[in-house]
Amino acid sequence: MSTMTLSQAPAAGPSSSGTARVVPTRIPFGRILWVELTKMFNTRSGFWLTASIGITAVLATGSVILFGSESAMTYDNFGAAIGVPMVIILPVIAILSVTSEWSQRSGLTTFTLVPKRGEVIWAKLLISVALGAVSIVAALGIGAVGNLVGAGIAGIDPVWDISWNQASSLVAANVLGLLFGFMLGVLIRNSAAAIVGYFVYNFVLAGLTAVLAENQEWFRDLQAWVDFKYTQGMLFEGWPVGGEAWAQLGVTAAAWVVLPLVVGLVLVRRSEVK
User: Fold this and answer.
1) In terms of DSSP bridges, do strands 20-21 and 13-14 run parallel, antiparallel, or are they unpaired?
2) Is residue 24 helix, strand or coil?
3) Helix, strand or coil for residue 8?
4) DSSP state letters, 116-163
5) Does 18 have pLDDT greater than 60?
6) What pLDDT digit, counting tens, does each position of 213-230 carry?
7) Which of 40, 48, 4 minimizes the C-alpha distance to 131?
8) Where are the beta strands (DSSP E) in 25-150?
9) For the chain, how big is the Rg over CA atoms in Å?
10) What span, in angstroms and rounded, lies between the C-alpha atoms of 111 and 117?
11) 10 Å Cβ neighbour count for 20?
12) Which of 29, 163, 230, 249 is most open to solvent, judged by the fewest CB atoms within 10 Å of its CB?
């Protein structure tokens, strides 16, 4: 945190004791971004959690090569294998980027040096999204290498069955999941509770809504308008087709991500950091 040292502006006027009063200048947003990026890696947990994206991508790729059949050596299968751990890890990284300020009490220093808490939160958001996008692209690159290696070992031509449209929608789907995790971190501000909340949403609630849609016709027609997990899942198949699908994605994202994030930002600015 030494890089976030307040610089001094010219004296604004004499204090009550007659000495010149020094007014701190505002810390540039670029410096806040750099500090938040550094904080993502400067702890063992942060470093290994971020590194686990590449590690799990390599392991998933190796598993497909070792245990997959010849027909399984397709880029789509490599991407699916890599995508499973990514869906879990990226939101957890986003959650911890926020909740660490409260769980590790670093917020006492952070919000003293940067009193405008909104700037810190937005910096964390930008860094998390950028890190997530870069990680997904890197993982897809590892999958591409695995596809070439797997095809070479099997003695077949590599199958590139993921288009640029599908690849970009995969990035968008994972970033939306990351944003949901970030929202939980801002709203709850407790690492354990936010992570549990994400797993309940991702596995329990998603299963319940799927069962409800299967057995209740009224909810089957309504699901795409109220179930963010369902509309997010459409992106894994490619970009939505038609205006209605985009509207459904927008409505569910606004209800499940944007509005709770706004509420969380208000709470962050008003809450006491202990």
Assistant:
1) antiparallel
2) strand
3) strand
4) -HHHHHHHHHHHHHHHHHHHHHHHHHHHHHHHHHHHHHHTS--B----
5) no
6) 888 888 888 998 999 999
7) 40
8) none
9) 22
10) 6
11) 10
12) 163
